[in-house]
Amino acid sequence: MTDALTSPTPSTTHTASDSSNENAVVLLSGGLDSVTCLYWAKDRYAKVTAVSFNYGQRHNSELVAAKNIANQAGVDHKIIDIDIAQLGGSSLTDHDMTIPDGDADKFPTHTDNIDNDAIPNTYVPARNTIFLSYALAVAEVTEANHIVIGVSSVDYSGYPDCRPEYINAFEVMANLATKAGVTGHKLHIQTPLQQLSKAQTIQLGNSLGVDYSQTISCYKADSEGRACGICDSCTLRKRGFSDGGLADPTRYSAN
Amino acid sequence: MTDALTSPTPSTTHTASDSSNENAVVLLSGGLDSVTCLYWAKDRYAKVTAVSFNYGQRHNSELVAAKNIANQAGVDHKIIDIDIAQLGGSSLTDHDMTIPDGDADKFPTHTDNIDNDAIPNTYVPARNTIFLSYALAVAEVTEANHIVIGVSSVDYSGYPDCRPEYINAFEVMANLATKAGVTGHKLHIQTPLQQLSKAQTIQLGNSLGVDYSQTISCYKADSEGRACGICDSCTLRKRGFSDGGLADPTRYSAN
């Protein structure tokens, strides 16, 4: 790997050279970012377990994509049912709420101070915390000491639980929560996309062999996995391909 | 409240005087500790929501107890299905593993450095982290800024996720994870039993009107909610009543 993009700075000081005998858990939604993380992890750890969540998403095409991608990558895959939808509070799980269309200019960046008005209604309360907590349980059972999550500070939707300070705090907590922490088997939360733009993420994935036509990022994907092309998530994804001057293999329903 | 036991030191510097208009979420298993926390919270917050988990416990008598107790206390109650059992690794959810009988002398105390050998097989990987993460989601939706959990450093079973340093780290993470943290609506993890022995917890509960005959702590309770009297949890509970010179209203199957 000679391209600097294939070795983005992880959240910790852990280096690739001593990780080849170690195991990792990857949070895999089936979207562009998480699939890139899956291939990044596969390239560097001995064993990778992908974990996806069935949390009352409007369509399950994302989960179908996750399953196919994990199979294709040849990694173990767990789908965990979780009960977030009954809690309400998000347009992604509450079908009475409207998912907003995208406006790329309004997205905060890592240099902004986000405020409540900038948090869109697609935010699911405590979602990444719940996801990472399950990943922590899987990491204990599979003796993994890396959890990989595809958050980014550069092109993100303004969710508080994507910020580096949040990820660092979760890592500190996780090392106090578990047997691993007690026995000195330190757990790392790896965020290989943290400093990458969407275009750089796609370039990284291309170099690792990701087939982006199979990934689904859209909040409103139809039952055949075709993207709407206009929601926040589609807007960010489209801009990534376009900024990088890369062909966009996404299947759009509007096309 | 003049009894010092009714105002144990919480994990934070938050005082009772400014909490009467605030909301709380209480983790309610149906056991002695969590029911004491429920009554402690009811005594001090404007609105309390109790949250219980259906996680493949061997018997659901604990959940039935939780439901009855929440009804009797007149608080909202949510039961959330979670999918820990499929992960394996604990005798509480893996029915092929044997739950050990209690040996009160072997329990670590807050002055011990716990090690892996001291962690019993009743430990469920990342359990408190998953429970607290869901409580965090409920707290966001119900606009609560207190989550109450009945962990104790004094009489505990050697689980890493009951230690004060773990709770403090979760609180730091939680305040970075959520809208609440972004808007300065600070979230507190309250641990009113942290410095109390089991006997002191029972004294606190008695002063608040808890009916301990209704609570179930046993890891092996039968389908009618009767306790085995010999598992770790029963051993700690029995010792609490006995150390405090208090009548034990627990219904034992062996009696």
From TrEMBL, chains A, B:
Q: How is the cofactor bound?
A: Binds 1 zinc ion per subunit.
Documented EC number(s): 6.3.4.20
The cross-references to InterPro entries, in alphabetical order and at most eight, read: QueC, Rossmann-like_a/b/a_fold
Q: What class of enzyme is it?
A: ligase
Positions bound to Zn(2+) = C218, C228, C231, C234
- What's the encoding gene here? queC
Q: Which reaction is recorded as catalysed by this protein?
A: 7-carboxy-7-carbaguanine + NH4(+) + 2 ATP = 7-cyano-7-carbaguanine + 2 AMP + 2 diphosphate + 2 H(+)
Q: Identify the CDD domains for this entry.
A: QueC-like
Q: What is its biological role?
A: Catalyzes the ATP-dependent conversion of 7-carboxy-7-deazaguanine (CDG) to 7-cyano-7-deazaguanine (preQ(0)).
Q: What is this protein called?
A: 7-cyano-7-deazaguanine synthase
CC cofactor: Zn(2+)
NCBIfam families per record: 7-cyano-7-deazaguanine synthase QueC
Question: A GO biological process this protein is involved in?
Answer: tRNA queuosine(34) biosynthetic process
Which residues bind ATP per the record? L28, S29, G30, G31, L32, D33, S34, V35, T36, C37, L38
GO MF terms, alphabetically ordered: ATP binding; ligase activity, forming carbon-nitrogen bonds; zinc ion binding
- What pathway is this protein said to act in by its record? Purine metabolism; 7-cyano-7-deazaguanine biosynthesis
Query: Which family is it part of?
Result: Belongs to the QueC family.
Keyword ATP-binding attached: yes
Q: Which UniProt keywords apply?
A: ATP-binding, Ligase, Metal-binding, Nucleotide-binding, Queuosine biosynthesis, Zinc
Annotated segments matching region Disordered: 1-20
State whether keyword Ribosomal protein applies.
Answer: no
